[in-house]
Amino acid sequence: MSSVRQFLEKKLKLKVNEKKSAVARAGQRKFLGFSFFRRKGEVLIRIADQALQRLHERLNALTRRTRSGRLEGIIRQVNEYLRGWMCHHRLNNDPASPVEN
Fold this sequence. Notes:
Elements: H1 2-11, E1 30-31, E2 34-39, E3 42-47, H2 49-62, H3 71-88
Antiparallel strand pairs: 1-2, 2-3
């Protein structure tokens, strides 16, 4: 980790966040809402469980029965959120994921 930190800070002039940074196997880390798994010797990408949980929480908040506002506005906000979420997570390789490849 120290050699990687030195390279990033000195050569690339980047700041390393110690709380978020670690050296580990791909299957043990999550990155930008993705987790990684190995199938037949190939490392593949899936949506992290925490990202799916945040998606469900956000959709529940957007679609609460007690939420005020016009139906068209609520639908527009849900569509905007889902469109952005799906564009970000379209890289996954997991056939069981909610986003199609």
